[in-house]
Write a structure and sequence with these properties.
mainly alpha; about 40% helix; two-stranded antiparallel ribbon; 3 helices; about 120 residues
């Protein structure tokens, strides 16, 4: 799926609050401090909300039923990556546009020399 998203800005406060919490978990231990970082973080949240809405529209009824992790038909067997369907953000589930915003703002974890509060 192409990762061409536009920030439509039409998101509920609940959607934004939920995504901010998930995105904070993704950038941990980094903390948003400057106005530039805040703008990039907010933009990344909006990109991700848009990405998930579009993905949900495309998948609609094609999702895997709860509890199903694999399928076997005769000699054919297939296991599903159930982590992809969880709400936790990781490099595989975050959209490229949101990842780029965080990367260019310097908000992604860079090892023990990160910018977490206690380290400063």
């Amino acid at each position: 799926m192409a990762d061409l998203h536009a920030n439509t800005g039409q998101y509920s406060e609940d959607e934004l609050a939920n995504m901010r919490a998930r995105m904070r978990g993704f950038i941990l231990p980094n903390v948003v401090r400057t106005e530039e970082e805040k703008a990039a973080f907010e933009s990344a949240c909006m990109y991700q909300i848009e990405h998930e809405k579009r993905r949900q529209d495309v998948l609609k009824d094609k999702s895997i039923p709860d509890g199903v992790t694999s399928v076997q038909i005769g000699h054919f067997a297939m296991q599903f990556d159930v982590d992809v369907f969880k709400t936790t953000l990781n490099r595989r589930t975050i959209c490229d546009a949101a990842y780029a915003e965080l990367l260019y703002a310097g908000l992604l974890y860079r090892g023990l020399e990160g910018r977490c509060g206690p380290c400063l």
